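Lab notebook: predicted structure, single chain.

Context: the supervisor wants predicted structures on file for every construct in the current expression panel, including those that have not yet been purified. This is the next one on the list. No modifications to the sequence; it matches the entry in the shared construct table.
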Amino acid sequence: MIKQLIRLFTVFGAASLLLSACASQQGTVSANSMSKSVKGKWTLNTVTFEGLPATARVTTVFSNIPYKCLEGSEWNLPSNAYGSFTTTSGAEGCSPYTQNIVWSTINQGGVIMLQFKELLDGVKAKNISDGYRVELSAVDNSGMIWRAPVTLEGKTAYIVYSFSRK
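Prediction complete. Output recorded below exactly as produced.
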């Protein structure tokens, strides 16, 4: 009888531990699950600024691309991680072009980040050390938002990229 009670408590204890472990992970978003959501074709609709003083002037982003030239760009983020973006803006100072990239998502201190490197002709991705990281603030079937932190006058502000799924 005592052996049966011990066995019963052991089974209930193990089940409780398993259920509490599953419950604590429920609702937690992983970099891998966000990566699956990010895959696809996107249009960058707007680039806006959050928390920047009115006197601040942001003219370029990423590889010195005028941010206005990125608005309307098409982003291809396939499952093999080798994607691209194509600028299409006819705004002054903008020339349409396509940039190949390699991308992924990571968990950085509890924040899911999307990172990408621009691929150069004849250079393997593993040999490129420079790249970009943005917070992957939201992604669903219709839209995605990136927030890139910038420090200005000792304060953190954000460049916000808003996408729609194609």
